[in-house]
């Protein structure tokens, strides 16, 4: 079986934009290629595990299509490797970590995506590490080198999403009810043209917390990536975001 090919066909046919931030490629790494490379991760990888891993990846990618249909960049290599390792552990230790992680990530996408009161437009902040970086800074976890897709982080983000929904329900000043508009709490424009330009520039200056197109990427937190993103947005002359509730760096 060509594991991953069905996912590739689905994404290329359904994603409004299906781009990569990898400067040497025009499209994201095919999932078929990622499956073929699994023995590089672990010489003991059992090909019989591919089917179960593929089912989890299908759930993740379908959820993005549902909740973030306007997503631009789809570099899921780093997340793929994390999920593969989690699946291996589940199979070797007879536990449910992979099933639980897939469930939690899908819940997160639904909680923050277009069918939620939060209604963010992209999944970029999750897969390229901005949400993870902010969590590290808030909890002062830098010396612990925490997992970008570990349950501590995933559960924290889920709880934060619940809190945001409550704030929106109360028409909070920073998170008001936007009557169905896509939400942008940042100080700079994130329309599709500006977001693409901004993310590509941050790639070129090596100022992304996770190089998500490289499954061997080492997540970084030595810089203030939030501040750098704002500085680059200003340098590029991106429009100021005047939407109600814009406040975040």
Describe this structure in words.
The protein is 51% helix and 0% strand. The chain has 249 residues and is mainly α. It is globular, with a radius of gyration of 18 Å. The termini are far apart. The mean pLDDT is 95.
Fold topology:
Blueprint: H1 5-14, H2 31-36, H3 38-41, H4 50-67, H5 77-93, H6 97-112, H7 124-127, H8 130-139, H9 151-169, H10 192-204, H11 225-235
Summary of the model, kept short:
By secondary structure, this protein is an all-alpha fold. The chain contains eleven helices and no strands. 34% of the residues are buried.
Q: What portion of residues is helical?
A: 40-55%
| Number of helices in the DSSP assignment | 11
How would you sum up the major sheet? none
Category from helices, strands and their pairing: mainly alpha
Q: What distance lies between the first and last C-alpha atoms, to the nearest angstrom?
A: 46 Å
Strand-residue proportion? under 5%
H and E order: HHHHHHHHHHH
| Average pLDDT reading | 95
* pLDDT < 50 stretches: none
* Overall geometry: globular
Radius of gyration: 18 Å
Question: Which descriptors would you attach to this protein?
Answer:
51% helix, 249 residues, mainly alpha
């Amino acid at each position: 079986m060509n594991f991953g090919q069905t996912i590739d066909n689905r994404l290329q046919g359904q994603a409004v934009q299906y781009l990569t931030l990898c400067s040497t490629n025009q499209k994201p790494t095919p999932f078929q290629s990622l499956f073929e490379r699994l023995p590089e991760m672990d010489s003991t990888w059992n090909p019989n595990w591919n089917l179960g891993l593929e089912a989890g990846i299908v759930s993740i990618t379908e959820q993005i299509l549902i909740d973030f249909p306007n997503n631009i960049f789809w570099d899921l290599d780093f997340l793929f490797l994390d999920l593969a390792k989690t699946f291996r552990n589940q199979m070797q230790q007879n536990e449910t970590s992979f099933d639980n992680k897939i469930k939690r990530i899908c819940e997160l996408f639904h909680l923050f995506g277009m069918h939620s009161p939060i209604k963010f437009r992209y999944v970029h902040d999750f897969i390229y590490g901005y949400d993870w970086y902010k969590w590290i800074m808030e909890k002062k976890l830098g010396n612990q080198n925490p997992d970008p897709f570990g349950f501590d982080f995933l559960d924290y983000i889920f709880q934060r999403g619940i809190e945001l929904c409550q704030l929106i329900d109360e028409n909070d000043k920073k998170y008001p009810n936007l009557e169905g508009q896509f939400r942008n709490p940042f100080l700079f424009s994130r329309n599709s043209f500006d977001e693409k330009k901004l993310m590509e520039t941050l790639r070129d200056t090596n100022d992304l917390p996770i190089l998500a197109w490289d499954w061997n990427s080492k997540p970084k937190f030595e810089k203030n990536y939030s501040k750098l993103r704002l500085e680059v947005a200003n340098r590029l002359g991106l429009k100021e975001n005047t939407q109600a509730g814009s406040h975040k760096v």
